[in-house]
Amino acid sequence: MWNVFDLLQYQFMQNAFIAGSIVAIMASAVGYFVILRGLTFAGHELGYIGFAGAAGAVLLGIDPVFGLLVFTIGSAIGMGILGKEVRERDIAIGIIAMLGLGLGVLFLALYTGYAEQAYSILFGTIVGISRADVLVTALASIVVGSILLVIFRPLLFSSLDEEMAEARGVPVRMLSILFLVLVAMVVSISVQIIGVLLIFTLLIGPSATASRLVQSPARAILLGMVLGLLYTWLGIVIAAYSNWPVSFCIATLSFGVYLPVRLLSPLWSGRRRGEATNAANKARTDAQKSLAEAEKV
Amino acid sequence: MIQLLQLAFVQNALIAGTIVAILSAVVGYFVVLRAQAFATEALSDIGFAGATGAALLGGSSLLGTFVFTLLAAYGIGVLGERVRGRDLEIGMVLAFALGLGVLFLNLYTQFATETVNVLFGSLLSVSHDNVVIIAWVSLAILLVIGFLFRPLLFASIDPEMAQARGVPVRLLSIVFMLVLAITVSEAVQIVGVLLVFALIVAPAASAERLTNRPLTTIALSIVLGLVFTWGGLLLAFVGHWPVSFYISALAALSYFISLIVHRVRVPKRYKEPERPCMGCPGSSNQGYINVPVPAERASR
Q1: Contact yes or no for B198 and A87 at CB 8 A
Q2: Contacts of residue B201 in chain A, CB cutoff 8 Å?
Q3: How far is the C-alpha of B89 from the C-alpha of B96, rounded, in Å?
Q4: pLDDT (tens digit, 9 = 90+) per residue, B265-296?
Q5: CATH of B2-299, one of 1.10.3470.10, 3.40.50.2300, 1.20.120.80, 3.60.70.12
Q6: For the whole model, what pTM was predicted?
Q7: Taking CB atoms and an 8 Å cutoff, what residues of chain B touch A110?
Q8: CA separation, residue A254 to residues A29, A207, A265, B179 (Å)
Q9: What is the complex's ipTM, to 2 decimals?
Q10: CATH of A14-296, one of 1.10.3470.10, 3.40.640.10, 1.10.3720.10, 1.10.10.10
């Protein structure tokens, strides 16, 4: 019989549970906005960029979290300033992420210590989290949480309808850069549990499922947090007993819940939502077509 | 240097690297044109699960990658237009595929070094058998592209017009996804799962900034791809750092230089006018707009 209380006698398991819980809550809260603002690719790539920071920090002998924070926040600000043009942005972000990964490989090759450390940056771990890491995680999430609470309403407004928000005097650009910095911080603290490769499952998975199940933003965020906590706790317990990588366990849970919800959601969300998006898409393509024609003329 | 070339593994690396660089540059041009960078990444992540799964079962990782990416590419191609704007769904699937790969790796080997090899490539350990497979498959793919070149270009630049002219756009996009899958599988052998961007997207994205004509762009991106690969190998022999790092650093460098060159070369007056948003709530432009034509361009 799996006994969770046995597990909790070990200090490293306590650390993993505390850090994992904090990370799950913050990731779901930020993840909701990441989806709303269409930044899923950016969130995924921020993890890759962070890999260079983490590997560099290992090389210098400091805590990987600090390297992660420096690299992800730096590139988040860069992304925010570079701005809009989505198609070009995907390529630019992809190439920056590629450079980050390449640098990470270099730092790992230069690092002569145990390769285990690299392994845990890539795939996450439940055994390597120290009390200091828990402290950094808690501090970072207090910062992220309080900023998020302060900017919650304007952020929601500008995510739902950017132009209207701008017209009403919301500092849209500032908000978008600030939000990317928040994403960077959350990605940095998530890496210790989930690893750089599978950030997506903890950042996006719970919120994506939740926003299919309930409509209002507050409820979706809360449900996302509950789901994120469940995935993380279950993932850690399964990983502890099966010796599989914790990130695989969390990814499977996250995908396993998302898939049926995604496939069945048309049943309860009704047609209205689908029609609304269809209409919006049609309006958009029409506008693009007439723009293209205008250009040709 | 000459002595190095006599070593079998160096020859293998050089031949495989050259073939894959050429193929990736050609396919990459269409990837950039069709804005399928995200699909490229999705395919390589899915290939990771294939490579590690095949290794776990004792098969060839190259074949495992081929099977997985081809299946996934067929799926993406069939879904076609409906895939656009579905970053969320693609993302969830590729995250799960990566997770599977992580599990397979974990079951297959406890050695972290091998993990790093799959993820970041090991050009210097490409086997002779794989070189032969890569050469034949690449030749076949290049022939297919040569055969389909004009309709594919047309369908990539203006799918609606191509459709109206009777080009089988849907079929072409499925075929192209399959071509992309094979190219990704080969590139994974050279630079690893995580760095396929360096060979597929970076050369074409840089070349596209420097020239406009399709054939010139393709030729330039082939040259760039070869420079990255050969340069990476050469620097790795001299500097003893990983090949993948040098290739990705060269690729990123060339992309950023091309951005700067593009910006410097295109004078401000030629820049496209700000595009107003039509029909957006809150936008002052509702309905038809006159796009102002720069004086220089109009007088031509």
Answers
A1: no
A2: 91, 94-95
A3: 11
A4: 765 555 555 554 444 444 444 444 444 444 44
A5: 1.10.3470.10
A6: 0.78
A7: 241
A8: 16, 10, 16, 31
A9: 0.76
A10: 1.10.3470.10
